[in-house]
Amino acid sequence: RQGKEKSCGGQENVGGEHETCEEPSSTTRRALVAGTLATSLTTTTTIQRRFMDNQMAKALVVTEKEKAESKLVMGNVNGLRSRVSSFTLPNGLRWIVLERHSAPVVACHTYANVGASRERDGYTGIAHLLEHLAFKGTRIVGTRNADKEALLLDELDELFYCLLEAQMEGKRERAEQLNKKCLDLQAMASSLSVPNEYGALIARQGGIGLNAETTQDATEFYVSLPANKLELWMALESGRFIAPVFRELYSEKKVVEEERRLRVDNTPYGSFTEAFTQTAFPHHPYGRPVIGYPGDFEKIGRREVTEFYKEYYIPNNLTCAVVGDVDPMEVERLARYYFGNWNPCSGSRCLENVNPVPWHKDGSWNSVVRTDGPHSLTMDVAAQPFYMEGYYRPSSLSSDDPTISVIRELLSGGRLSRFYKNVILAGKALSATSVDAFPGDQHPCLFLLYGAPSVGMETESLALVFHNELEGLASEVLDDDLRRVKKSARASLLELFGSNEGIAKLLCKYDATTGTYNNLFEEIEHIEAVTPIDVTNVSSILFSSNNCIKGSVKNLNAL
Hints:
- This protein is α+β, with helices and mostly antiparallel strands.
- The chain contains 18 helices and 13 strands.
- It has helices at 46-81, 126-133, 146-168, 172-192, 197-204, 230-242, 249-265, 268-280, 294-297, 302-312, 328-339, 401-412, 418-424, 459-475, 479-497, 500-514, 518-528, 532-542; strands at residues 7-8, 11-12, 84-88, 94-99, 105-112, 208-214, 219-226, 318-324, 376-381, 386-393, 429-438, 445-453, 548-555.
- The strands form three sheets. It has a six-stranded mixed sheet, sandwiched between helices.
- Strand 6 (208-214) and strand 7 form a beta hairpin.
- Helix 2 (126-133) crosses helix 10 (302-312), helix 6 packs parallel to helix 11 and helix 12 crosses helix 18 (532-542).
């Protein structure tokens, strides 16, 4: 298929890519992480005073250098920010445009502020399935005869629900007959469709990177095109969202079912991560798999998909970003032409004003909901030992979110991090890393640690190693470590701004989830404001023993 989903084992892509389910990845907005510079020297003797003078001189040099770097970065940030504009259509659809005329290309990104956490109990997997179906084309693209195909799809829907009813009533013979008719109709409808025509059309016009991803919090669609193909993207994007066809729905369900078997059911770490998340969030949608439960998925037909689409794929729940060699006036003209008449609601929901999100204002941890069930999970499987533990934390809207991001960077942000220096290089683990928000970040979630112990070590030993590093953060944070994090943030910021695709994604996400895209450009300032005291205080709350849930994979063959 064209789109990949970041969901394996019920998480937002365990591993960061569609092809693997072995490593959880963060869903946090933040791509920028940094710390503050703070120097504190105390002395009583003459020798100590001389040492202090030398250190202060060194610190002054470093500070001036960092000030220059920070000024350069912020100058680039402000220059980029000045080229961003936005507009909102009367139907509520939000658009963000960033002019970059360095190359005749454009990155287009559509952000739907709905993910798997919005699904109803008993019907998991719809958000991800809808993402798949968006690549099946439009009423015009992807079919040889739209009218005839529509009749067959309607007839197929009726048969599907009759089949479900027969199965529920235990009418085996009738169910078999209806299933055969369904397969025959699917074959007839398939003969009228043109497989992958949507993606092939984009590719023929020079498009690259056509893809999508579904998480607990959002569904995103993106592609890069030559700048002179912007109108083509507008026409295709409006076609598949304003009047979706949902062709090949039942055959695509089989694709997703096989995907689940391959990525979750038949992989020990995929099954473990799904079970771990369910244990951590037994009464919250974050505990359900993005890819869906098999029993739920079997009940999903076009009625359920259409209902979910009509509820959440509405103009004021979508944000689009266009970044590249474009004229903002032309973008707005095209947007009004192709999307301006889209008014799917008869009521007021599509036109209601959404209050800005109080971003980084709520410092309370009272919203954190911990499991009232078991706080540990052990699975005995034929796989190498693996250890995971999660600490409950507030959502990314919390005022402590920047500090939590700094903590993650201090623990596992590169070769100078605590995990790499004290754990990996010391031979205490084969792998060790942390994720600051899992499996989503729009609701209270987990700060995750996970890794594989060294050969001959048990997972309990790795847990002790982790705890030793966490205790260090709660007791003392060196200025040099925060200085490293700060420098890393500058580098990340500059790297990020070099990518049309990356900046388009973040402009959409910040605008949709924090109230304005301007918060993206202020992110570095929030990180800069973090102090060593902030790190130790938040660490002492976050990493308390009663705030933790643990999971281990034991090697069945070694028992």
